[in-house]
Amino acid sequence: MASVPFDQLEGFIWMNGEFVNWADAKVHVLTHGLHYASAVFEGERAYGGEIFKLTEHTERLHESARLLGFKIPYSVEEIDNACRTLLQKQGFKDAYVRPIAWRGSEQMGVSAQNNRINCAVAIWQWPSYFDPAQKLKGIRLDMAEWRRPDPRTAPSKSKAAGLYMICTLSKHAAEAKGYADAMMLDWRGQVAEATGANIFFVKDGKIHTPTPDCFLDGITRRTVIGLAKDRRLDVIERAIMPEELEGFEQCFLTGTAAEVTPVSEIGPYRFEVGEIAKTLMHDYNAAVQPKQAIAAE
User: Fold this and answer.
1) Alpha helix (H) ranges present in 6-75?
2) What DSSP character marks residue 127?
3) Which DSSP helix (H) or strand (E) runs through 259?
4) Rounded CA separation 246/249 (Å)
5) Number of folded domains in the chain?
6) Which residues are annotated as catalytic?
7) Is residue 296 part of a domain?
8) Is there a domain that residue 105 lies in?
9) Domain ends where: 68, 101, 124?
10) CB-CB contact of 87 with 48 (8 Å)
11) Beta partners for 46?
12) 224 and 174, same structural domain?
């Protein structure tokens, strides 16, 4: 899978209301979204033929576009239907789903009021975001140099393409040192998140997680908080300073791609893959499975 470039995969992509051959889903090199990052996207997973929390993701896609000053010309229902139909056309049961919307090439420059708003959905098979064997032992995180910006300087509530530039830089730097990912601080020096996932810690049976005031309050994050509360576990959202990591016993990441992934190490700090992390990993795996698949077991 990894050896095949993404532009050479086969199948269909939904693009501006039509299903086109994968190889024909192209944009011009002078597309505004490429030059000025005027693009928003979602990451979703299908399990057993159903896309988990699809409508929540599509609603966030619309909200992300609004925060970037444009309106997607397809309704939430239209994009939901496109995602479901495309999943069937691709013939996949378990897959990754990527909707994206961007400003086109009608106008080039910082101003882009006259540009067409394009929208596309691609679906491909993508296994675990982290190495499955390493995931069970807990992945290792570096401490990132780059920090999540002050929300007064960037639309941090939007899942905007440009906000991931520092994530790529941080993940590349971590991987070059042999780590799986990196933990980022925010502009104040507080713990924020990993490069593409939210972060949680456990101490004395209670779960602690940073308040998402300058990064995405992830859909998986909210799902896992709900699962923890179903287990009558205390979940505390608060500012967390990096020096507090020494006192935490467990750590795990959450995200559509990462799902629930235990962490064994962040820089000089060590964590156990404990029962709370394992339990929430199990509960999340059960939650994402379609109800008919569970009933058939």
Assistant:
1) 32-36, 54-67
2) -
3) strand 259-266
4) 8
5) 2
6) 159
7) no
8) yes
9) 124
10) no
11) 51, 95
12) yes
pTM surpassing 0.85?
Answer: yes
Distance (Å, rounded) from C-alpha 73 to C-alpha 112? 16
Q: What's the rounded Cα separation, in Å, for the pair 26 and 29?
A: 9
At 29, list the tokens. 């090199």
Return the closest-CA partner of residue 87 out of 96, 76, 75: 96
What is the Cα–Cα distance from 143 to 147, expressed in whole angstroms? 10
State the number of CA atoms in the 13 A half-sphere of 168 facing the CB. 5
The DSSP letter of residue 145 is E
Q: What is the CA radius of gyration of the chain?
A: 19
Cα 124 from Cα 162, distance rounded (Å): 23
Q: Which of 141, 151, 263, 129 is nearest to 215 (CA)?
A: 151
Distance CA(169)–CA(126), nearest Å, equals 22
We report the CATH number of the domain holding residue 164 as 3.20.10.10
Q: For residue 248, give the 3-state DSSP assignment.
A: coil
Range of the domain at 60: 6-124
Specify whether the CB–CB gap between 95 and 12 falls below 8 A.
no
Q: How far apart are CA 56 and CA 41, in angstroms?
A: 13
Establish if 1 belongs to a structural domain: no
Query: 3-class DSSP state for residue 143?
Result: strand
pLDDT in tens, the chain (297 residues): 447 899 999 999 999 999 999 999 999 999 999 999 999 999 999 999 999 999 999 999 999 999 999 999 999 999 999 999 999 999 999 999 999 999 999 999 999 999 999 999 999 998 776 777 777 899 999 999 999 999 999 999 999 999 999 999 999 999 999 999 999 999 999 999 999 999 999 999 999 999 999 999 999 999 999 999 999 999 999 999 999 999 999 999 999 999 999 999 999 999 999 999 999 999 999 999 987 544 444
Residue 266 β-bridge partners: 141, 269
